């Protein structure tokens, strides 16, 4: 534990920074005093991201000029459609490849289709980030077969 004397090692409490006599349970981030002002500005920007104007994250990227929020949302929706289709095709490939189904040609076709849909999603994500937009992926996927 930080900040406690360890009699077995002969160390003192000055050797290790004190943490208010509390056990650490993971990583603790305590930034330097020098960056506190910059972090508060960033927090303000993130908190005001729904308010249009010069303090939003959209204004932080020059690539985002003339990039409407509706277009960004539509591209995010299409990215999620592509991933959902990839997931469904991948499920079909796994189903066709089962030992009691045994259709390796269909399995290969659906596997290739899954890879193609994932490739489409990757292209759209690259375009989205190139234009200064953010990628928002939804959890889950298509239905399970089997």
TrEMBL record:
Q: Recorded GO terms, molecular function?
A: ferric iron binding; ferrous iron binding; ferroxidase activity
Cited PROSITE patterns: FERRITIN_LIKE
- What SUPFAM superfamilies is this protein classified in? Ferritin-like (SSF47240)
Pfam families assigned to the protein according to its UniProt record, in alphabetical order? Ferritin (PF00210)
Q: Which InterPro entries match?
A: Ferritin, Ferritin-like, Ferritin-like_diiron, Ferritin-like_SF, Ferritin_DPS_dom
| Keyword Iron in annotation | yes
Q: Which reaction does this chain catalyze? A: 4 Fe(2+) + O2 + 4 H(+) = 4 Fe(3+) + 2 H2O
Chain coiled-coil ranges: none
Annotated binding of Fe cation, by residue: 82, 117, 120
Question: Belongs to which family?
Answer: Belongs to the ferritin family.
What is the role of this chain? Stores iron in a soluble, non-toxic, readily available form. Important for iron homeostasis. Iron is taken up in the ferrous form and deposited as ferric hydroxides after oxidation.
Q: How does it assemble?
A: Oligomer of 24 subunits. There are two types of subunits: L (light) chain and H (heavy) chain. The major chain can be light or heavy, depending on the species and tissue type. The functional molecule forms a roughly spherical shell with a diameter of 12 nm and contains a central cavity into which the insoluble mineral iron core is deposited.
What is the protein name given in its UniProt record?
A: Ferritin
Please report the organism this UniProt entry assigns to the protein. Answer: Tetradesmus obliquus
């Amino acid at each position: 534990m930080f900040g406690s004397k360890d009699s077995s090692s002969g160390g003192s409490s000055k050797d290790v920074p004190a943490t208010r006599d509390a056990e650490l349970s993971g990583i603790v981030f305590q930034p330097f005093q020098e960056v506190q002002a910059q972090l508060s500005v960033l927090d303000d920007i993130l908190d005001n991201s729904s308010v249009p104007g010069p303090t939003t994250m959209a204004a932080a990227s020059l690539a985002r000029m003339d990039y409407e929020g509706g277009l960004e949302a539509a591209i995010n929706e299409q990215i999620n459609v592509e991933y959902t289709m990839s997931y469904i095709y991948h499920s079909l490939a796994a189903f066709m490849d089962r030992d009691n189904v045994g259709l390796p040609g269909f399995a290969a076709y659906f596997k290739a289709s899954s890879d193609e849909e994932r490739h489409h999603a990757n292209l759209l994500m690259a375009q989205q980030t190139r234009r200064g937009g953010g990628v928002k992926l939804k959890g889950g996927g298509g239905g399970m077969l089997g």
